[in-house]
Amino acid sequence: MRFTPFDASEFLDSEEAIAEYLAAALDDPDPELFIAALGDVAKARGMAQIAREAGVGRESLYKALTPGSKLRYETVRKVMDVLGVKLTVSTRSS
């Protein structure tokens, strides 16, 4: 039996799906998961277009959204603004 690799970007077809996907990734304590999720969303929307609208070079954005990168908050903010989503803060629920 042959399996194809799972590509989350194929399923991120609405703003609601994107917001839920990023929120779930942000809930995980591993920051690499959020970086990877942000990369999946950028891929789903078109990496070159996201980079252009965010004012970031395409190659720079690819590098920034690679696991192990030292992603800057400024870049996260620019990409999220282009994607139409935002980070929010709330209290932990019991």
Question: Which class of secondary structure composition applies to the elements?
Answer: mainly alpha
What's the helix-strand series?
HHHHH
Number of helices: 5
Proportion of strand residues: under 5%
| Overall form | globular
- Ends: how far apart? 44 Å
Give the proportion of residues in helices.
Answer: 55-70%
Protein name: Addiction module antidote protein
Organism: Methylobacterium oryzae
InterPro entries: HI1420, Lambda_DNA-bd_dom_sf
Concise description?
This is Addiction module antidote protein. The protein is built from 5 helices and no strands.
What features would you describe in this structure?
InterPro entries: HI1420, Lambda_DNA-bd_dom_sf. It comes from Methylobacterium oryzae. The protein is mainly alpha-helical and 94 residues long. It has helices at residues 15-27, 31-45, 47-54, 58-64, 73-83. Helix 1 (15-27) packs antiparallel against helix 2, helix 3 crosses helix 4 and helix 3 packs across helix 5 (73-83). The longest helix is centred in the middle third of the chain and has 15 residues, at 31-45. It is globular. The relative contact order is 0.15.
